[in-house]
Amino acid sequence: MESVVSSGIIKSYFDKLDCSLKADAAVVGGGPSGLLAAALIAERGYSVNVYEKNLAPGGGMWGGAMMFNTILIEESAASIAEESGIVLTPGDEGYYLVDSVQATAALINRACRSGARIFNCVSVEDLTFNNNEEVNGVVINWSPVLQRRMMVDPLMTGAKAVLDATGHPAEICEQLTHKNGVRLSTVSGDVAGERSLNVELGEKNTVEYTGEVYPGLFVSGMSACAVNGGYRMGPVFGGMLLSGSKVAGQMIQRIDKN
Ligand code: 48F
User: Fold this and answer.
1) Ligand 1 in contact with 32 (CB < 6 A)?
2) How far apart are CA 100 and CA 68, in angstroms?
3) In the prediction, which pLDDT does 233 show?
4) What are the C-alpha distances in Å from 23 to residues 26, 101, 167, 248?
5) Which ligand 1 atom sits nearest the alpha carbon of residue 58?
6) Contacts of 206 (CB under 8 A, 6+ apart)
């Protein structure tokens, strides 16, 4: 029996890994914006890989604010939240109150059910280029390898569209600019870094700055704010869902063209 258990796991994982080597989309970071983007792209029939460096996807959504596990979602994102299975309770001033654990679990569930391949404990440590003109894949490694600074070479997987959904650090955009000196189509041409907290402007910035910042490379959620110098917005999550939805549409357009 022991060998049946091990063999089932190994075959299933390696099948998934093998199928992921050439995907339509690669989503780096399993926070709310990345999970929703992955689900929406996969639900349209495209192949999607999600790489999440931690054991559990969900990013900064689980803990609510200061670990009080309630978050807020505004009216403009209510329909996306509900269609994702998030339970909304009306609060004040047009905001809904949401159990952050239920909401995070609902987004993970939607992404898993969409057919997106989720690789947890896997970090994206770099990008690949096509003639230095467009991003066409990601460079992956086990998170513990990177955490322990082991000298182990990575693997590469191809994608027609790559999403930096790594949240506040905008790690993939940082890699692209620092290693290659390229200019992004952001406000400064570089990774500006996010501004201090302003709920209203932060929500607005997250959505308006969502998009393609270099051929083949897109940003969503807090990465979109971070690369463009947008405001941080705190425990309000409607902008993350609207951003994930917006970037999914843009990535599908690029995938269709390629
Ligand atoms: O930060 P995060 O939740 O991303 P988001 O979609 O949402 C932001 C909100 O949660 C919150 C907020 C709302 O007011 O400010 O912070 O922008 O999730 C980012 C995910 O990316 C993973 C990280 O572990 C987290 O789960 N991640 C970061 N870098 C890498 C990565 C990497 N290099 N490779 C793989 N995963």
Assistant:
1) yes
2) 9
3) 87
4) 7, 30, 22, 15
5) 26
6) 33, 221, 222, 224, 225, 230, 233, 239, 240, 242, 243
What letter represents residue 67's amino acid? M
Instruction: Convert the pLDDT of each residue in 53-70 to its tens digit.
Output: 999 999 999 999 999 999
The pTM of the full predicted model, rounded to 2 decimals, is: 0.98
Question: pLDDT by residue (tens digit) across 133-172?
Answer: 999 999 999 999 999 999 999 999 999 999 999 999 999 9
Q: Write out residues in the chain with pLDDT < 70, as ranges.
A: none
All domains of the chain in start order, with CATH: 22-60+101-257 (3.50.50.60)
Candidate of 53, 117, 122 to mutate for ligand 1, largest count of ligand atoms within 8 Å of Cβ: 53
For residues 102 and 229, give the distance between their C-alpha atoms in angstroms, rounded to a whole number. 31
Strands (E), the chain: 22-28, 48-52, 70-74, 89-90, 95-99, 117-120, 122-130, 134-142, 155-164, 195-197, 211-214, 217-219, 231-232
The closest-lying atom of ligand 1 relative to the alpha carbon of residue 29 is 21
Number of Cβ atoms within 10 Å of the Cβ of 145 = 16
Q: How far is the CA of 233 from the centre of ligand 1 (A)?
A: 14
Helices (H) and strands (E) counted in the chain, each on its own, are 9, 13
pLDDT for the residue numbered 181: 87
Exposure of 248 in the CB half-sphere (CA atoms within 13 A) = 26
